[in-house]
Amino acid sequence: MFHYTVLTEQSVDEACQNLEEKLKEEKFGVLWDFNIKDKLNEKGLEFERSFRILEVCNPAEAQRVLNQNVMIGYFLPCKMVVYEDEGVTKIGMPKPTALVTMVEDEEITAMAQEIEHRLMACMDKSV
C-alpha cells in the first residue's frame, strides 16, 4: 500500500490539533494547513466533507535528505490528510518509502523508513 491511514473518533479539527501536538514532539512543524472544504465553498463549489491537507516538515530531516539527493525535493514537504469519510475521521499520508522508490537510492530509502516510522507513530499517538 502506498499510504498509511488510521481511524479516530475525534472530529477533523480535534484530530488536526492532536496530530500537530504529536508532530511537534518529533520536531515536525505544520507549514500549511489547507482546508479544502472552506476553499471550494469560497469558490462557489459545493463540497460538504471536512478535508484538510497538512504539509509537515522537520528542517533537520529535510536538510539531511536533500544533502543526500536533491531530487527528494520533489516530495517535500510531507503531506498528511485529515478528513471525514462516511461519518469516520481518517488521518493518512502517502508513505515516504513508497514515494522515494522512484529515485533508486538505498541511503534515501533508509532515511525514508526512519521518517515514515516517526510520522506513523505521531498518527498512532494522536488517535
Tell me the domain tally. 1
Strand order of the largest sheet: 1-5-4-3-2
Q: In CATH terms, what is the fold-level topology? A: TATA-Binding Protein
Q: Structural class of the secondary elements?
A: alpha+beta
Shape: globular
Strand content: 25-35%
Tell me the radius of gyration. 15 Å
CATH class: Alpha Beta
CATH superfamily: TT1751-like domain
- Summarize the biggest pleated sheet: 5 strands, antiparallel
Number of strands: 5
Second-tier CATH architecture:
2-Layer Sandwich
What's the average pLDDT? 97
Number of helical elements: 5
Q: How helical, in percent, are the residues? A: 40-55%
The SSE order reads EHEHEHEEHH
Fold and architecture overview:
By secondary structure, the protein is of the alpha+beta class. The protein has one domain (3-126): TT1751-like domain (TATA-Binding Protein, 2-Layer Sandwich). Helices cover 45% and strands 28% of the residues. The chain has helices spanning 12-25, 36-42, 59-68, 96-100, 106-126; strands at 3-8, 29-35, 51-57, 78-85, 88-94. A five-stranded antiparallel beta sheet has the order 1-5-4-3-2. α1 packs across α5. The model has no long low-confidence stretch (mean pLDDT 97).
